[in-house]
């Protein structure tokens, strides 16, 4: 016998359909309906609510082989599916994470095709693979942030069995796996949850109705989220989650959902005997997310840090539009590298108000923040999805890499970044409903037209060519500057793994100097100095020593090093910088 259960406090009657046969269900006092039924291991099933004849998928569906509008399917992994019994896990602190989108990472766009590229990632030196959302969403391809059945795995990628094969293969190669989980909103097509119960609140966020985290009957909705999060780590052996846009989680209870999730994740880690990590994407610059719970925080492992991205990108590229308006100077870059956040209780001209709160750099290590030069958002949410590699020269890309990978923060790459991929990463979708497809395309064009873009330049997300253009071109990875840049990334990552000074996680030990006019900046980390020239002209930097790694042809002298335009050098100095020394002009002291 198989027990079927569904939380459905809203309807007066719920019936179970298993392989076309209807069964009565019994309601408990807490709104759960249950029935014990003889069912095959792969039975298709769903629920019929009241007098509506439509058979709805299970909100906790383990598999959706025919799409999010159809019946669910019972599923369990094969007994011999896993071979990672010896996998001890790994910490993300100071690691290098590689974010990828399964559908565009390879030409085939499947989990099995991604497995074929894992040896390449091992050679590159990354420690974790971070998968953009793999939950079930409507259509064949999309970014995955419009999921509606959070427990199921997107079938076109390979379904749950394919995900198991990918994670198992990663673990066999020493790679951890993080899964991007979206708990702040539901997609526009296939969301039947409100017919079962009060999954949504009266509030709204940028993507629609907010999830009910603190209104009446919120306890079961919270449990729905918590169980889903733990499922990825327990049943699919994921090593952690990236939590999408946690600032959109509207929770006014005394124990925030994130704190509750962190507590249960730590308990699961203890049970499994391996580290499990929670990484938040947050727009708040709020250290409470990564502050330990015994000190009043939520106790998450880490968070994305867009301030670092903005500071690096604007200093190198010169862009200043939109939320880049407060960034661009080397002083801003130095301040951000030194303090973690740039906006830390300071005025944000983009938001027209104060924003953020200072990070306690004496107690919170830098490895709790992620540094990156681009992400799926920072590329795909541009009007035409253009990468920095499509507008910057290879020297500028190299400087950005040196600043991010040479910093004390946990590092992250976005797929193809390491060779300066020529492929854009555009916003794409495949809604089969004509009205929704048209609304998505028109809304995208209107959004960017408001910011001054020509609407005709904005690619149609529903056009299959938009999806195809966004796939990586693996044929170019060894060509010219592509190959040279890839080798540089590999060498930078290797330095992170082998140089003790680059493993120091404390920002109080970081010393930053810069010259706004000459356009150079130096990060001193112990005996290593990472000197970057973001300007076009050659300049001399007041640091010298043994050359460790460089882009360009630096010329170390007795007291200074000459750097070509758009280049960097990592030097081993004779004497490590003293964190108590008086700062030179334009320096931020350690």
UniProtKB/TrEMBL annotation:
Composition bias, Basic and acidic residues: 60-72
Top-rank lineage group of the source organism: Bacteria
GO biological process terms on file: trehalose biosynthetic process
Pfam families in the record: Alpha-amylase (PF00128), DUF3459 (PF11941)
Cited InterPro entries: DUF3459, GH, GH13_cat_dom, Ig-like_fold, Ig_E-set, Trehalose_TreZ, Trehalose_TreZ_E-set_sf
Cellular compartments annotated: Cytoplasm
EC number: 3.2.1.141
Site (Transition state stabilizer): 377
Catalytic activity: hydrolysis of (1->4)-alpha-D-glucosidic linkage in 4-alpha-D-[(1->4)-alpha-D-glucanosyl]n trehalose to yield trehalose and (1->4)-alpha-D-glucan
Enzyme category, top tier: hydrolase
Pathway(s) served: Glycan biosynthesis; trehalose biosynthesis
Residues covered by the Glycosyl hydrolase family 13 catalytic domain: 76-444
Protein's UniProt keywords contain Cytoplasm: yes
Active-site residues from the entry: 244 (nucleophile), 281 (proton donor)
Annotated spans, Disordered: 52-73
Cellular component annotations (GO), alphabetically ordered: cytoplasm
One Gene Ontology MF term: 4-alpha-D-(1->4)-alpha-D-glucanotrehalose trehalohydrolase activity
Binding residues annotated for substrate, in chain numbering: 242-247, 306-310, 376-381
Keyword Zinc-finger annotated: no
Family: Belongs to the glycosyl hydrolase 13 family.
Database matches in PANTHER family: 1,4-ALPHA-GLUCAN-BRANCHING ENZYME (PTHR43651), MALTO-OLIGOSYLTREHALOSE TREHALOHYDROLASE (PTHR43651:SF11)
NCBIfam families, per database record: trehalose_TreZ
Protein name: Malto-oligosyltrehalose trehalohydrolase
Lineage of the organism: Bacteria, Bacillati, Actinomycetota, Actinomycetes, Mycobacteriales
């Amino acid at each position: 016998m198989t027990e079927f259960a569904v939380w459905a406090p809203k309807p007066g009657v719920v019936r179970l359909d298993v392989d076309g046969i209807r069964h009565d269900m019994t309601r408990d006092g807490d709104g759960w309906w249950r029935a014990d039924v003889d069912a095959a291991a792969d039975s298709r099933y769903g629920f019929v609510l009241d007098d509506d004849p439509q058979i709805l998928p299970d909100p906790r569906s383990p598999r959706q082989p025919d799409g999010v509008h159809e019946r669910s399917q019972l599923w369990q992994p094969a007994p011999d599916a896993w071979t990672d019994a010896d996998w001890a896990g790994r910490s993300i602190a100071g690691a290098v994470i590689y974010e990828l989108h399964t559908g565009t990472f390879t030409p085939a766009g499947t989990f099995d095709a991604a497995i074929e590229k894992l040896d390449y990632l091992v050679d590159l030196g990354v420690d974790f693979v971070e998968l953009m959302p793999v939950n079930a969403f409507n259509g064949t391809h999309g970014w995955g942030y419009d999921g509606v059945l959070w427990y199921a795995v997107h079938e076109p990628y390979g379904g749950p069995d394919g995900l198991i094969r990918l994670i198992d293969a990663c673990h066999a190669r020493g790679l951890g796996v993080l899964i991007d989980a979206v708990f702040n909103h539901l997609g526009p097509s296939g969301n039947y949850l409100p017919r079962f119960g009060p999954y949504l609140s009266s509030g709204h966020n940028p993507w629609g109705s907010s999830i009910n985290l603190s209104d009446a009957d919120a306890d079961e909705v919270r449990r729905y989220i918590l169980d889903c999060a733990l499922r990825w780590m327990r049943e699919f052996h994921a090593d952690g989650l990236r939590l999408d846009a946690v600032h959109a989680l509207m929770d006014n209870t005394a124990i925030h959902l994130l704190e509750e999730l962190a507590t249960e994740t730590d308990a699961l880690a203890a049970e499994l005997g391996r580290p499990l990590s929670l990484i938040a994407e947050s727009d708040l610059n709020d250290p409470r997310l990564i502050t330990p719970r015994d000190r009043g925080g939520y106790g998450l492992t880490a968070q994305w840090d867009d301030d670092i991205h903005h500071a690096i990108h604007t200093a190198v590229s010169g862009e200043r539009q939109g939320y880049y308006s407060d960034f661009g100077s080397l002083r801003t870059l130095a301040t951000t590298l030194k303090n973690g956040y740039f906006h830390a209780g300071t005025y944000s001209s983009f938001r027209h108000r104060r924003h953020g709160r200072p990070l306690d750099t004496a107690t919170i290590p830098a490895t709790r923040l992620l540094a990156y030069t681009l992400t799926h958002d920072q590329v795909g949410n541009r009007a035409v999805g253009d990468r920095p590699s499509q507008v910057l020269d290879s020297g500028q890309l190299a400087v950005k890499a040196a600043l991010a990978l040479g910093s004390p923060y946990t590092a992250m790459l976005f797929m193809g970044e390491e060779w300066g991929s020529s492929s854009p990463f555009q916003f794409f979708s495949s809604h089969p409903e004509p009205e929704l497809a048209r609304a998505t395309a028109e809304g995208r064009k209107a959004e960017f037209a408001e910011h001054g873009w020509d609407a005709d330049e904005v690619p149609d997300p529903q056009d299959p060519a938009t999806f195809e253009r966004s796939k990586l071109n693996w044929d170019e990875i060894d060509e010219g500057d592509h190959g040279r840049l890839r080798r540089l990334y590999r060498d930078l990552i290797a330095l992170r793994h082998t140089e003790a000074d680059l493993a120091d996680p404390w920002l109080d030990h970081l010393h930053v100097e810069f010259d706004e006019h000459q356009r150079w900046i130096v990060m001193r980390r112990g005996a290593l100095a990472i000197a970057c020239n973001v300007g076009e002209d050659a300049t001399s930097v007041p640091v010298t020593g043994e050359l460790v790694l460089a882009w360009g042809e630096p010329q170390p002298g007795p007291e200074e090093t000459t750097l070509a335009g758009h280049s960097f050098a990592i030097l081993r100095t004779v004497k490590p910088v003293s964190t108590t020394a008086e700062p030179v002009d334009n320096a931020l002291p350690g």
